Amino acid sequence: MIRLPFVLVFAALLFSAGVYGVLARRNAVMVLMAIELMLNAVNVNLVAFGAALQQVGGQIFALFVIAVAAAEVGIGLAIVILLFRNRASINVDEVNLLRW
Amino acid sequence: MTAQEYAFAVIAAVGAISAIAVVTARNVVHAALYLVVALLSVGATFLLLGAEFAGWVQILIYVGAIVILFLFGLMLTKAPIGRDTLDNQNRWLGVLVGAGIFAGLVFLIQSAFPIGEAKRFRVLPSTTESVGESMFRNYVLPFEAISFLLLAALIGAIVLARKDEGT
Fold first, then answer.
1. Which CATH class is domain B3-82+90-126?
2. Is A94 in CB contact (< 8 Å) with chain B?
3. In this predicted model, what pLDDT tens digit does every residue of B126-147 receive, in sequence order?
4. Looking at residue A42, which CATH number applies to its domain?
5. Is there a domain that residue A72 lies in?
6. Measured between alpha carbons, how far is residue A2 from residues A48, A53, A56, B118 in Å?
7. Contact A66/A43 with Cβ under 8 angstroms?
8. B120 CB-near residues (< 8 Å, 6+ apart)
9. A97 is a domain residue
10. Which pLDDT value is given to residue B81?
11. Do B153 and A24 touch (CB under 8 A)?
12. Interface pTM (ipTM) of the complex?
């Protein structure tokens, strides 16, 4: 027996921490970690609503989000490593070549 | 407060502290290890909510695979240590935006599900059998889309990260 808003507030806190991390970090790997925190907050919400409605769909969509997150980390780290190879730095503030 | 709520309070406190530590730690490896704790607490929340399969998948894939990928990424890019090299000049703006989003979300949650009158729901553990049955009966198309996405991401990551030789 558990109340839904508690879980939702926990997810909101994870999400806000992720937003702060994306905005404040310069290291690209740390930005990816903060994105993972936000995806996890969404997963917590999905599973919590699924449990509250006693349906299994929320859990299944959480599994889909986990799969998307795994793909995102793979691609993201490949880009980061490519960036490091070309610029010898993964500071996202310095990556402004495409900007005009 | 029921026993489950006490257990959730402990898990959520650990998770919240470690999530904030992930985004404020000065050492990148420490941040990755705090991320492990945050992800474990999310997995424990899944288990507490009766989502057994999602909980173990969370622990296996996130803690077992994704964090290892992060550690490899940190190792290969020789990440520097120290607040000035890790955070940019927008830190206080970030605090403001993060706190604003948290306040807005809490306000929304409070107006949609008032904590004072929220009813406790009974957690029914869902078996792996029911998850698999529902996934392959009702969600086959998203499942196929996800597998195609994973394949594309795999090939894309290999193409991006391999060294070009002789071109």
1. mainly alpha
2. no
3. 888 999 999 999 999 999 999 9
4. 1.10.287.3510
5. yes
6. 10, 13, 17, 10
7. yes
8. A1, A2, A3, B2, B5
9. no
10. 67
11. no
12. 0.90
* Closest chain B residue to the Cα of A57, Cα to Cα: B134
Q: Is A39 on the interface with B (CB under 8 A)?
A: no
pTM: 0.89
For testing contact with chain A, the best of B23, B39, B140, B146 (most A CBs within 10 A): B23
The domain ranges of chain B are 3-82+90-126, 127-167
pLDDT of residue A90: 78
Closest CA to A43 of A27, A19, A64, A13: A64
How many domains are there within chain A? 1
CB contact under 8 A, B19 and A77: no
Residue A62 has pLDDT above 70, yes or no: yes
Domain limits at A10?
Answer: 4-92
Task: Show the tokens assigned to B115.
Answer: 């904590």
* Torsion A62-A68-A70-A73 (CA) sign: negative
Mean pLDDT, residues B61-67 taken together: 89
Q: Could you tell me which residue, B84 or A30, shows the higher pLDDT?
A: A30
Q: Which whole number is the average pLDDT over B58-83?
A: 84
Instruction: Report which of B105, B98, B127 is spatially closest to residue A42, judged by C-alpha positions.
Output: B105
> Which B residues 117-156 touch A at CB under 8 Å?
118-124, 126, 130-131, 134-135, 138-139, 142-143, 146, 149-150, 152-154, 156
List the one residue out of A85, A27, A48 whose CA is nearest residue B12: A48
Q: Quick check: is A70 in a domain?
A: yes
